Amino acid sequence: MSENALFRVEDLVASYGAVKALNGVSLSVAEGSICAVLGANGAGKTTLLRTVSGLKRADSGRIWLGDTDLTRCAPERLARLGVAHVPEGAGIIVELTVEENLRLGGLWRSDRAATLSSTYDLFPILRERRNQPASNLSGGERQMLAIGRALMCRPRILLLDEPSLGLAPMATRQLMDLIRQLCADTGLTVLLVEQNANSALSIADEGVVLNLGTIAVSDTADRLLSDDQMRHAYLGF
Amino acid sequence: MDYFTNLTLNGVAEGAIYAALALSLIIIYQATRVVNFAQPALALIAAYIALTVTTASGSYWLGFAAALVSGLLMGSVTERLLIRPVQKTSQLSAIIITLGLLLLLQGVAGMIWSNEPHSFSYPMDFEGRFSPADIFGVAAVLGTAMLLFALYRWTPLGLRMRAAAAHPEMARMLGVRVGLMLTLGWGIATVVGALAGMLAAPPFVYPNVLDSVFVYGLAAAVIGGLDNPFGSLLGGFILGISLSFVSGYLGPELMPLAALIILILVLSVRPDGLFTRPKARKV
């Protein structure tokens, strides 16, 4: 991982009471690449994302997006700085329609109308269902809506938390291909947190394995996929 | 038949006031899940401010505007200074605070403006059946409701406010300043409350003048469904007309009793309110 990466986390520490959920995590993601964050339940994956998006306060350490220091940045500012977050379960606002959910992603931008129509081009199913309540969507469609909404702010980095959760294998496959395609087409940088290590590594460039709040392994995705010992030790298959 | 028409029109005029109060409660309830018991006291202060401004300037409408502006300010300040700090602990603390604020403001109103009734003018001629004052009241409430609907449904600000109410954490991640939206929600709600106070207070204003109206407004909100602004609006009119009939045919002393009976009937048949559709199951 290069020193001039777009997104860098340096020695991040975050805790819940006396329990350190992150204990000195450092990682970096090069522009236009996908970095998969793997690990078992309780390894600190979600805490890492919540700390990056400002929902959880870091005890120490720094988070950088290019030259911008994101540490202790309020969540509502991060979206404007180019950090988009798709939380676990997609975070769809079911009280709103599909289109309202999408528009919410980039309300402050002057180019929002154009972005909306290009998002619809990317996800034709969302255009078909634009005026329906978001609660009508299936799990896969919700993930698409959440990703489409995240793209509305024209992010520099996309944080994805367990997008495959609850999806059928086919839907997971499609979703992963879509993320890969997005990166290839738009140069988007992705931090992909997954329990489904095989799916995530199949599209990632790099991978890190979190274990009890520290980085246990960090390597290219290809080498991680072929490292049986690592898989047995940390991912349990 | 003439009597019946009279009662109906009276009921519509009264119902508009209940509807406005119900609306002011629901805007806050939807945003913060708090029933704002201080609403009548905030409306009362707004009415007193209107009285002071009207007396000083000689213009009713200047006083009217002062009431609405002070409503916006008082609602925002209440949210920011009193509700926000306890919102994270429990919903109950916030509700108790609004109850405390009700008693405090009514006491303070008595200290500043005295407990004696001051005469309080109608916006327009109030004599006769469905007088200009009544028409103004109904039109003002319906107009306000339509403005609010347009604000919440069609403007980016309204979308932000709905998102902040429905899913505050996600809204923040999407760049919505949730705290500001809640403050604004309280401000807007208190403007609607102040409007209700301006319509309900005449002919006299005194510290407890809005108490009974508030109880009917709360009943209207519950009848219509606390999650449903349209329902609460309809609930206000239904309650206003029903109570007008009770008062006209059975006697005005039965009004509070009738309101309670209606409330109990509605709650036993439709606990979520008359107009709330059953929620789709969340998956």
TrEMBL record, chain A:
Residues 7-237 form the ABC transporter domain. The keyword DNA damage does not apply. One of its GO terms (biological process) is L-amino acid transport. One of its GO terms (molecular function) is ATP hydrolysis activity. InterPro entries: AAA+_ATPase (IPR003593), ABC_transporter-like_ATP-bd (IPR003439), ABC_transporter-like_CS (IPR017871), BCAA_Transport_ATP-bd_LivF (IPR052156), P-loop_NTPase (IPR027417). Keywords: Amino-acid transport, ATP-binding, Nucleotide-binding, Transport. Gene3D superfamilies: P-loop containing nucleotide triphosphate hydrolases. It comes from the Bacteria. Coiled coil: none annotated. Belongs to the ABC transporter superfamily. This is ABC transporter ATP-binding protein. It comes from Halostreptopolyspora alba.
Automatic annotation (TrEMBL), chain B:
GO terms for biological process: amino acid transport. One of its GO terms (molecular function) is transmembrane transporter activity. Keywords: Amino-acid transport, Cell membrane, Membrane, Transmembrane, Transmembrane helix, Transport. It is found in: Cell membrane. Coiled coil: none annotated. Pfam families: BPD_transp_2. It is a multi-pass membrane protein. GO terms for cellular component: plasma membrane. It comes from the Bacteria. CDD domains: TM_PBP1_LivH_like. The chain crosses the membrane at residues 12-29, 60-82, 94-115, 135-154, 174-199, 205-226, 233-251, 257-275. Belongs to the binding-protein-dependent transport system permease family. LivHM subfamily. This is Branched-chain amino acid ABC transporter permease.
